[in-house]
Amino acid sequence: MSVPEEPARPDAGEPPGGGGAVGEGAVPPRRLVSLALAFYAVMLALALGLRALLAGGCLLFADAAAAARGIAWRDDAALGGLAGAVVILASRWLTRRTRAGAALARSLARALGPLGPAQCLALALASGVGEEALFRGALQPTLGWIGASLLFALAHFVPRRELVAWSAFALAGGLLLGGLFDRTGNLLAPVVAHVLVNAVNLRLLTRERDF
Fold it and tell me: Is the dihedral of CA 121, 87, 93, 23 positive or negative?
């Protein structure tokens, strides 16, 4: 799950094509995307294995009854899009109105370095699909809404003061995404919401920064 974006700096230009110097401690953008794709591919494989071991059935659905109902593609996608838009607006408010949100955004922007639109989208798709498959599709049917959300927050915990807010943001996001999974019975809405939030916030986070 992505984080609140940092307010744009009017004197900071966007590196053409996502290029330019990489922030201190940041992985070069192409390597970052390659590592992320490999990591989330492993996560997806783990999700498939855990779902088969813990609950059985199709990873896409909460249970057999949900699988029998199928996916309401238009309604579920629209619900996910609406939820994602709400999270984006909330993250913008937190970044611009709270010190913790601004500090978190600055720290992550420096760690990520400059990313182009295609790289932000690739990271958003990989993380949205991989994380929802694991935490909602594989774990929530067994651990429940609260248990899966707590693990989601724990997975986003970093023991640094400026990043503590990330766990709180992830917990709130995990509860929302888990609610979408329970409401619809399938992964479409939470994946749409997760990908939308990450794609928009990653782009805003890395668009106009001094690295």
Answer: negative
Band the pLDDT of 17: cuts 50, 70, 90.
very low
- What per-residue confidence (pLDDT) applies to 108? 86
Would you state the structure tokens that stand for residue 202, as one six-digit string?
């990653």
What span, in angstroms and rounded, lies between the C-alpha atoms of 24 and 43? 27
pTM value?
0.86
For residues 88 and 140, what is the distance between their CA atoms, to the nearest angstrom? 24
CA dist., res. 124 & res. 122, Å (int):
5
How far apart are the C-alpha atoms of 96 and 77, rounded to whole Å?
29
Q: Which of left, alpha, beta for 17 (phi over 0: left; psi -120 to 50: alpha)?
A: left
State phi, psi for 187 to the nearest 5 degrees.
-85, -5
Residue with token string 């909460």:
62
Contacts of 8 (CB under 8 A, 6+ apart): 204, 207, 208
CB atoms within 10 A of CB 4: 28
Which tokens belong to 54? 């813990």
d(CA 135, CA 117): 26
Q: What is the dihedral angle through the alpha carbons of 55, 59, 62, 64, rounded to the nearest 10 degrees?
A: -70
